[in-house]
Amino acid sequence: MFSALSRRRVVALVVLTCLLFITLDKHGNPVIDRVRSALATVLQPIDTATRAITLPIERVWYGITNYDDVERENQALRDQIEHQKGNDVEARSAILEYRLLLKLEQLASKFNSPTVAAQVIGDSPGNFQNTVEINVGSTDGISVGMPVTNGAGLVGRITRVYSTHSLVKLITDPAYSVPAQVLSSADDEGIQGPLQEIPGGGVVTSSTSSTTTSTTVAVTTTTALPGDAVAPTTTPPATTSTTVLEVIRETGLLEGQGGNKPLLLRFVDNSSSIANVKVGAIVDTAGGTKGLAPQGIPIGVITRIVEQTGNSSSLVEVTPNADLRQLNFVVVVLYKSETVGP
Amino acid sequence: MRGFVVAPLIRLVPVGLVALSIQRVVFANHPLHDVQIQLVLALVVAAGAGGGMDRGAVAGFVLGMMADASGDTPLGVLALAYGVGGMTAGYLHRFTPDPQWWLAVLFATMGAAVGEAAIPVVKTLTGEQGWINANLLVTVPIVAVAAGLLCPLLMPTGRWMMGVKRKKWKAITE
Predict the structure, then answer these.
(1) Where does residue A302 rank: exposed (0-12), middle (13-18), buried (19+ CB within 10 A)?
(2) Is residue B60 a contact partner of residue B79, using CB atoms and an 8 Å limit?
(3) What are residue A177's DSSP bridge partners?
(4) Do B21 and A126 touch (CB under 8 A)?
(5) How far is residue A122's CA from residue A160's CA, in Å, rounded to a whole number?
(6) What's the CA gap between A160 and A172, in Å, rounded?
(7) Which of A16, A20, A301, B108 is most buried (CB neighbours < 10 A)?
(8) Which of A9, A131, A259 sits opposite B72 (nearest CB)?
(9) A157-212 confidence digits (pLDDT tens)
(10) In this predicted model, what pLDDT tens digit does every residue of A237-261 receive, in sequence order?
C-alpha cells in the first residue's frame, strides 16, 4: 500500500495533468490532434468488431420487442408520404419560382454549393456533448466548419475531421451558434401562398428596403397578356392582377441549449425584432461572409416566445425541423466560411 | 509509484478501448429516458471501489483521457471528472480494507454521481456554458444507479486491470 504522501502526489499529478491538457487543447495543439487521430484509427476496427457482434443480437431483440410498433410506424409513414406528395409538388413549384426571382434579380443561389452525402455511424457517447459521427472525412473533401443538413434542415457543423470519418456538432449543443433569420409575412399567411401566383411569363418588379436589424422585401407582380413580349405602356393588359407581399426578415443568433431542448434565438435589437416575429415563423440560416452556413438553409420553426419578467427582452424558442435523435443520412455542404473554429 | 502507475496501464488501455467501443456502439444508441448509461465511468468507479482512491484516480484519468480523445470534448475534461469519480468511489477503502459487496455498490453509485455531475462543472469552468441545468437531476441519478448495478460485474475486471489482489486474512496463531 502507498503512503499518504505518494497518494497525494498521484491525485495532484492527475489534477495538474488534466488542467495542462485542457489548456493545451483549448488553444489547439497539433500533437493532441495527432493523438486523437491515432486513437480514432485504433478504435475503428474495434468498433467494427463490436458492431458485428452486437448488431445481430440487437436485431433479434428489436424483432421480438418492437415488431408491432414498427408495423404501426410503417403504416403511419405510408400515410404521411401520400400527404407529403402534394406538399412536394407545391414546394418544387415554389423553388422554381424562387430561382426565377433570383435570376431576375441577378442574385447568387444557395443551391450553388456542392454537397457530399454521408451516413451517421455513431451517436455522442456522453450525456454532455451533442455530436454524431459520419462516415465521410478529409478524403471526401470535408473540412472543419462545414454545415451539415438532412432533408428537413440544418443538423450541425463539422468540428473534427479524420481521414475516413468526421464529428458533427449538432445545433442543439450549447457550444453551437449560427446567424439565423426569421422569415414571416406581414399578413401572417406565410410566404408560399402569394408567390405561387407568379406566372412564368409575367413581369416581376421588386423594391427592397432595409434597416440595421430587419429587411422588408416587397414583391409586386403583374401578369401581362400571354404571348406579349413587352406590354405596351399606353394600353393596359386585358387581365392584370397585382399581389403585394411583404416579407419580414429579422436576423439574430441561434444557439443550442443542450439535450433535446429547443434552440434559442437572440436578436441584435431585441425590442424591435420581437414585435415582428410570430409563433410559426420559419427560421433559416442568415449566411453572410462570417456566417457558418450559406444563406437559406432551413433550421426550424418558432414554437414559443416567452416574455421575461424584470426586463424588456423575450426568449424565442425554435424547434429544429430535423429530428436530431433519429439521424441516418445527412448531407455535408462543402461551404467554407471565413470564421472556422471547433 | 512507477510500478503503481505504469504496470496497470498495460491492462488499463486495452480494457479501456473495449469499454469505449461498447460505450460508443451499444450504450450510445440505447439511451434510457434520453440518458446514456456510462460504461466507462462505471468501470472507473468499479476500479476505485476495488482498489482505493489513488487507483480510482489513475483509472479515471487514463480512461477519461481516452474518452476525451475519442470524442469532441477538450482533452482532460472527462479525465478530471472521471478521476474525481474514481477517487470518490475509492474513498470506501478509508473505512474498510476489504469492503462487502453492497458497500462497494453504494460507493460506486456515489462515485458515478460525483463523476457525472463533475462533467458539466468542469465544462463550465473551461468556458462551455449551458450544461448545468435541470436535466442534471435526471441524468446523474440514472448514470449513478446504472453504474452501481454494473459494479458487481465490473469490479473483478477493475481489480484485475489495476493489479489489485484480494487480501487473504490469516488467523493469528498463539
Answers:
(1) buried
(2) yes
(3) A255
(4) no
(5) 14
(6) 17
(7) B108
(8) A131
(9) 999 898 888 999 999 998 888 888 887 765 554 444 333 333 333 333 333 333 33
(10) 444 444 445 566 778 888 888 877 8
